[in-house]
UniProtKB/TrEMBL annotation:
One of its GO terms (cellular component) is plasma membrane. It comes from Cognaticolwellia beringensis. It catalyses: 2 GTP = 3',3'-c-di-GMP + 2 diphosphate. This is diguanylate cyclase. NCBIfam families: GGDEF (TIGR00254). GO terms for biological process: cell adhesion involved in single-species biofilm formation; negative regulation of bacterial-type flagellum-dependent cell motility. The lineage of its organism: Bacteria, Pseudomonadati, Pseudomonadota, Gammaproteobacteria, Alteromonadales. GO terms for molecular function: diguanylate cyclase activity. InterPro entries: Diguanylate_Cyclase, GGDEF_dom, Nucleotide_cyclase, Rev_trsase/Diguanyl_cyclase. It is an enzyme of class 2 (transferase).
């Protein structure tokens, strides 16, 4: 009963109906609390994990891989020329595009331990605990190809007639001798640098 959230003291002579109603109310309360927690972790537009959820999960996965002497990888993703797309087709179509790309990224994810999240604006991240660089590069390759296959028309981009993404891929083996918050921030920054390289090299690709 405690696991369900029954916090009131219940006397042994409590009437069955009163007991039933009290437990029922507590179950509703626990369910509502869990629903609120889920909403707080979800991006309101795309329905996938939000930045706060990503930050929390990265901290947990970082410590977990550190204790296991494992590797953790991160893919930082940006939709190419998304501002031009918004200017050409409007924000409603822009929101639809963000949602379609988000769903595509989630569909490409194979393991329940991996996390796809909206990082902000048109940027997304894929967190891959216990994944080496080669494994992360394969996933990034699939992500770039799968978004291409969505065939979302992008008339404002002469070079790429459909919506494409660029991605930066990094891998790290967390160690106990590094300050965690600084190491995590540097990890994200490294992925962002690789993403910038992918854009510099022509977009619609990943760099690692």
């Amino acid at each position: 009963m405690l696991a369900l959230g029954a916090i009131d003291y219940i006397a042994s002579d409590t009437l069955p109906q009163i007991l039933f109603n009290r437990v029922k109310n507590h179950i509703k309360l626990v369910k509502h609390t869990k629903e609120l927690e889920q909403v707080s972790k979800t991006d309101g537009l795309t329905g996938i994990a939000n930045r706060g959820c990503f930050d929390s999960q990265l901290a947990l996965d970082w410590q977990m891989t550190m204790r296991a002497a494992g590797e953790i990888s991160l893919i930082m993703i940006d939709i190419d020329h998304f501002k031009h797309y918004n200017d050409e087709f409007g924000h409603v179509k822009g929101d639809e595009c963000l949602t379609l790309v988000a769903q595509c990224l989630v569909a490409t994810k194979k393991r329940t331990t991996d996390l796809v999240a909206r990082f902000g604006g048109e940027e997304f991240v894929v967190l891959l605990p216990f994944t080496d660089l080669q494994g992360a590069k394969k996933i990034a390759h699939n992500l770039v190809n799968d978004v291409n296959k969505l065939n979302i028309s992008h008339a404002a981009d002469a070079k790429h007639p459909n919506i494409t993404i660029s991605a930066g891929v990094v891998c790290h083996s967390p160690t106990f001798d590094a300050e965690i918050n600084f190491a995590i921030k540097d990890f994200i920054n490294q992925a962002d640098v690789k993403l910038y390289q992918a854009k510099t090299y022509g977009r619609n690709q990943f760099c690692s």
